[in-house]
């Protein structure tokens, strides 16, 4: 089926959707991290994320943009890239994202020696920094471009280890605070570099924080996120993408998100929601705190999108759109990282179903 000619450009569509104003169609959000496995033949995921020039990542992003024409680009690779630049050791794979095998901070003395990373030179961050430059040179003015981190608490957990920082929270909270403070400085320095490279939007959020109970989330996540959001605004970022990852407390701590300062920047709160009805409820909640806010996610990237058929993906997308798209403040995107080997036919179904979608009369 041929798609209708679009009446709005991505910038206008994104801005209108965040404000709850009418759009010509539903905005398509981030489609990562499928791009790390796309664009160049005979290239592994490990090849892409470790190449400091960022060329392979840029080529993957370019191929994704030219095939799917999303309404935003997020330049990202893997969720421990900040920690690796600070000393955490990862194992790399051919067809999936790297995973940590040894953490940088085993003692307070280690924390003192852990440097604040420079995204231009440290670890695998240059891949991102240089890819942002290349993507900005090609697509700036055509589509919003973002780059960010997994956020202060998750970076802290990935230099310390989730079990160990959980122990610290209970037995020596002063050290847990020191770790997250250091991680906050790291995150702010990284996004300062990305802003210099050309990113206009930034991001935060990953799974480590959704193991925290509400009180610990308020103590060890909220104040550092507020610092991070304020820094992003000071650096001149125009928007924030805030991820909510699946975890035992995800359904509880998401109600604390407005305390990050939703009035700082237009914000997209996307990721894991229990179901479409829950996401619609949270959309109504968030609009009470922010003049420009949207939600997205729910459809499971590593389940429905990866293992489903195109027909199943389209059917689930339409169900989601029927519930969550009315009234705007909605972006069509998966709940988390799209696996690098996700069938492209499924992504076609996911994107086209949303671009064709028109609300029921």
Automatic annotation (TrEMBL):
It comes from the Archaea. It holds the Pfam family URO-D. Residues 11-357 form the Uroporphyrinogen decarboxylase (URO-D) domain. Signal peptide: none annotated. GO terms for molecular function: uroporphyrinogen decarboxylase activity. GO terms for biological process: porphyrin-containing compound biosynthetic process. Gene3D superfamilies: 3.20.20.210. PANTHER family: METHYLCOBAMIDE:COM METHYLTRANSFERASE MTBA. This is Uroporphyrinogen decarboxylase (URO-D) domain-containing protein. It comes from Candidatus Methanomethylicus mesodigestus. The lineage of its organism: Archaea, Thermoproteota, Methanosuratincolia, Candidatus Methanomethylicales, Candidatus Methanomethylicaceae.
């Amino acid at each position: 089926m041929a798609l209708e000619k679009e009446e709005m450009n991505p910038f206008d569509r994104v801005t209108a959707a965040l404000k709850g104003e009418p759009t010509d169609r539903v905005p398509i959000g981030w489609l990562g991290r499928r791009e790390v496995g796309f664009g160049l033949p005979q290239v592994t995921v490990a090849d892409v994320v470790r190449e400091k020039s960022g060329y392979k990542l840029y080529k993957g992003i370019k191929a994704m943009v030219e095939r799917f024409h999303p309404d935003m680009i997020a330049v990202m690779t893997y969720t421990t890239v900040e920690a690796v630049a600070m000393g955490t050791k990862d194992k790399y794979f051919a067809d999936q994202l790297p995973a940590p095998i040894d953490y940088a901070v085993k003692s307070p003395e280690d924390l003192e020696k852990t440097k604040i990373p420079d995204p231009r030179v440290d670890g695998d961050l240059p891949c991102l920094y240089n890819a942002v430059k290349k993507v900005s040179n090609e697509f700036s003015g055509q589509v919003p471009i973002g780059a960010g981190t997994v956020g202060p608490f998750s970076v802290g957990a990935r230099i310390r280890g989730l079990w160990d920082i959980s122990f610290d929270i209970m037995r020596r909270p002063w050290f847990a605070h020191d770790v997250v403070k250091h991680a906050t400085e790291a995150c702010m320095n990284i996004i300062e570099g990305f802003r210099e490279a050309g990113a206009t939007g930034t991001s935060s959020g990953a799974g480590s924080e959704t193991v925290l109970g509400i009180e610990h989330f308020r103590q060890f996540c909220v104040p550092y996120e507020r610092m991070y959001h304020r820094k992003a605004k000071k650096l001149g970022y125009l928007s924030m993408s805030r991820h909510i990852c699946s975890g035992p407390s995800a359904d509880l701590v998401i109600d604390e998100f407005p305390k990050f300062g939703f009035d700082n920047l237009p914000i997209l709160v996307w990721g894991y929601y229990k179901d479409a009805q829950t996401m619609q409820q949270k959309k109504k909640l968030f609009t009470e705190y922010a003049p420009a806010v949207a939600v997205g996610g729910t459809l499971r990237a590593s389940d429905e999108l990866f293992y489903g058929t195109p027909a199943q993906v389209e059917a689930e997308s339409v169900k989601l759109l029927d519930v969550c798209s009315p009234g705007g403040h909605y972006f069509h995107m998966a709940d988390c990282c799209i696996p690098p080997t996700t069938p492209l036919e499924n992504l076609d179904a996911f994107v086209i179903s949303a671009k064709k979608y028109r609300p029921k009369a």
